[in-house]
């Protein structure tokens, strides 16, 4: 699925996770409901316009297909499916933060952020059905999972203190669309030991446990392509920078995993 719009929105909204109370966006006189509707309508309008201009929306009658999940014979070995989940999750978190800054309470912001993310990503998938990409139900299911994860993480901050869903990217600088560069991408869950009261004031607060997945060699369909599941022990960078006095920007590490900051044990599922 095309991912330009995802990269744009994810980079602009959730990764800083800063409070949005002072974000004007040119309509400060509107009430919070009008702002919410305008943001969603504007995003859908942009997707429609861009899809017609760049993604061939409207060139085919609507059609759907199955892309498979994480098998060795599917596109990207399933890494793109985790990309759908993470993107919808991160987008949900960013929108929830935006909405809370506009005056919605935490529960409302969590619900509206998740619904907005689901609707926008779903709209894009429907748009794909009118192009050569086609509607893939696997993508839609992962979008759903991502919006649910975004809702739960925002609604229950005590849980979010313990668990992160992250995207890792170790670029080769040979392409511009880094959100679809699955050859250099990993997705992971991280269990932060600092989120547990008994450990938050001990040296273990700077460590975390990780479970991740990545694929290699699917873009060129090489015969020795890999589907790797790994476990790891890493540095809790959010905690490190919090202790150093970093502000809201440090929360970027709840969503992004810098490479080479952990030790891992990898298992190639193709072996």
Instruction: Assign the structural class, choosing from mainly alpha, mainly beta, alpha/beta, alpha+beta, or little secondary structure.
Output: alpha/beta
Helical content class: 40-55%
> How would the global form be characterised?
flat
Total helix count? 7
Stretches where pLDDT falls below 50 for ≥5 residues? 1-8, 10-18
The helix/strand series, from N terminus to C terminus, equals HHEHHEHHEEEEHEE
Gyration radius, in Å: 19 Å
What's the story with the biggest beta sheet?
6 strands, mixed
Q: Would you tell me the overall average pLDDT?
A: 85
Number of strands: 8
| Strand content range | 15-25%
Strand arrangement across the biggest beta sheet = 7-3-4-5-6-8
Q: How many separate structural domains? A: 2
**N- to C-terminal distance:** 29 Å
Task: Describe, in plain words, how this protein is organized in 3D.
- The chain has 2 domains: 1-160, no CATH class; 162-271, no CATH class.
- The chain is built from 7 helices and 8 strands.
- It has helices spanning 4-12, 32-54, 79-101, 106-129, 137-155, 157-160, 237-243, and strands spanning 64-65, 135-136, 163-169, 185-192, 207-216, 226-235, 256-257, 262-268.
- Helix 3 (79-101) packs across helix 5 (137-155).
- The radius of gyration is 19 Å and the shape is flat.
């Amino acid at each position: 699925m095309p991912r330009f719009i995802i990269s744009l929105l994810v980079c602009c909204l959730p990764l800083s996770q800063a409070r949005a109370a002072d974000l004007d966006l040119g309509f400060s006189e509107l009430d919070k409901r009008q702002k919410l509707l305008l943001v969603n309508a504007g995003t859908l309008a942009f997707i429609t316009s861009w899809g017609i201009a760049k993604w061939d929306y409207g060139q085919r009658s609507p059609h759907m297909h199955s892309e498979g999940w994480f098998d060795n014979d599917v596109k990207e070995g399933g890494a793109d499916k985790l990309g759908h989940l993470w993107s919808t999750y991160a987008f949900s978190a960013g929108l929830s933060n935006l909405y809370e800054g506009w005056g919605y309470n935490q529960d409302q912001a969590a619900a509206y952020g998740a619904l907005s993310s689901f609707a926008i990503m779903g709209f894009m998938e429907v748009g794909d059905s009118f192009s050569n990409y086609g509607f893939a139900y696997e993508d839609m299911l992962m979008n759903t999972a991502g919006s649910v994860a975004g809702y739960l993480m925002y609604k229950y901050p005590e849980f979010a203190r313990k668990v992160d869903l992250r995207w890792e990217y170790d670029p080769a600088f040979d392409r511009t669309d880094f959100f679809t560069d699955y050859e250099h991408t990993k997705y992971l869950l991280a269990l932060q030991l600092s989120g547990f009261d008994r450990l938050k004031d001990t040296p273990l607060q700077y460590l975390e446990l990780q479970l991740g997945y990545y694929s290699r060699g699917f873009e060129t369909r090489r015969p020795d392509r890999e589907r790797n599941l790994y476990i790891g022990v890493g540095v809790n960078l959010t905690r490190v920078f919090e202790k150093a006095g970093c502000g809201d920007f440090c929360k970027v590490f709840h969503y992004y995993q810098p490479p080479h900051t952990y030790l891992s044990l990898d298992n190639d599922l193709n072996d």
